[in-house]
Sequence to fold (311 residues):
Amino acid sequence: MSLPTEFTVLDFETANEMRASACQIGLVRMNDHGETLERYSSPIKPDPGYEHFQPINISVHGIRETDVADAPTMRELASDIQEFVGTSPIVAHNMAFDYSVWRAHTELGNLPDFINPRLCTLRMARYLLQRPAGTNGLESLIHDYCPGLAFAHHDASEDARVTGELFLAMLRHLEMPLGQLVKTFALTQAPRHRGNAGSGNDNGTRPARPEADLTQWTNETALEGEVVCFTGTLGRMKRADVQQLVEKLGGKVDKSVTKKTTQLVVGVPSPTTWRPGMDGSSKMVKARALAEKGAALTVMTENEFFAAIEE
Fold:
């Protein structure tokens, strides 16, 4: 089998905390010589039930419901996206997020999944480059490996472009050909059409929860000043264990969303427990209301929570 010489960079923006709420996609195909071969981007209109634009998301990417009112849905774009990506390896910064967005839409729309090898610049920074905690955000990595490269962060097309440049810079730093990295470090798996369209898990399913080993987290100020609340079913560890972890890292735990809450971590939702007429758990509804009033409250998935404390 010939080794790949091209790759496709993927980036999504979402309207809210639900993975099936993609509102923008950016794709860039590049080769291992650093040439940009093709670019693709589109706004996306989220499906009914997923179209609520949270103020916190708008503050990040600037996209509003009116901006995508006439945009195509993911179902309408899926064949073009699949054709663009083809069989090339897929690269993203925080693949756990971007791939889970795609998986949520494949499950919602009964669309074919990617079985391409997947490479994550965040994982490369942590495990191959052994970078210290707090230095693995996209902007920090661009500053260190692509100095002078300007970009509009949280525009999907721009993030895809600079992630491609970052990926190539990392390959040069590691002195590793693309094909070798794909063979030794890529995530690969057959598609499994299970899970929930709101899940933040990389493969769309809830993995078995191992016994929690909290000793691997050593930054005891990682959550200093944060008041964290959890909703939904967590996949990585039990609720009691992750609450203990929050306290170990200097944070406080809220059992319900209050004005003091600074982070709401959303696991796999359970719509059957939602109150009639609501489009989320009572904690989610209250968090949205507080955010709309200007509260400094961040809604994130379980994957995003762990990515933040592991950086």
Q: What stands out?
A: The chain has two domains: 6-185, 227-310.
